[in-house]
Write a structure and sequence with these properties.
The chain is built from seven helices and seven strands; from the N terminus they run αααβαβαββααβββ.
């Protein structure tokens, strides 16, 4: 489904299939049936979610090439009516429009490049994204559900309860609910 230029990222940056299936199970009852995948990359988790369950998935990604690859894959799978990919920054989308969120280390790739040579500038951009995510999470309505895999770089804000935590692959998958 994906062009060779993106496949090299698969083993490090893309959600493994077994994890994506577990994320879908954990978010199955999220309020409103809408899930936002933050830092969706080429949309693998969103595509799997749209294929295996009734939820509507939206992926937000800053890399336009990955967004185009995700859109092409959704069309090829004939699920582009149940999944949307947005080319934008993490803080440009209002997370409160979604009852469920998925965060798989969404800003980590920013630390390793993205065309920026200076590691201090890369780290500053990463921290800006983490702080934006913390603000968005703190503003989520009561009942919102969040699944993290390998975290997101920050701490869950006050008001979140850890409902489930299980080891998967090289880390853990956690389900949180806003109280």
């Amino acid at each position: 489904l994906y062009p060779p230029a993106h496949r090299h990222r698969s083993s490090l940056h893309w959600t493994p299939v077994d994890v994506a299936l577990r994320v879908c199970e954990m978010l199955a009852g999220c309020p409103g049936g809408q899930v936002l995948d933050v830092g969706a990359g080429v949309g693998k988790a969103c595509l799997i979610g749209a294929l295996v369950g009734p939820l509507r998935w939206t992926g937000v990604e800053r890399d336009g090439r990955m967004v185009q690859a995700a859109r092409r894959a959704a069309r090829a799978l004939a699920i582009d009516d149940r999944v949307t990919f947005v080319h934008d920054e993490v803080d440009a989308v209002d997370w409160r429009a979604f009852g469920g969120l998925y965060l798989f280390n969404p800003f980590g790739e920013r630390l390793w490049g993205g065309g920026v040579v200076d590691p201090f500038i890369r780290r500053a951009g990463y921290l800006e994204d983490v702080h934006a995510a913390e603000r968005q999470l703190a503003a989520m309505p009561v009942g919102a559900e969040v699944v993290t895999f390998c975290g997101y770089g920050g701490e869950m804000p006050a008001g979140y309860e850890l409902l489930e935590e299980e080891p998967m692959e090289s880390d853990r998958v956690c389900l949180w609910r806003r109280r």
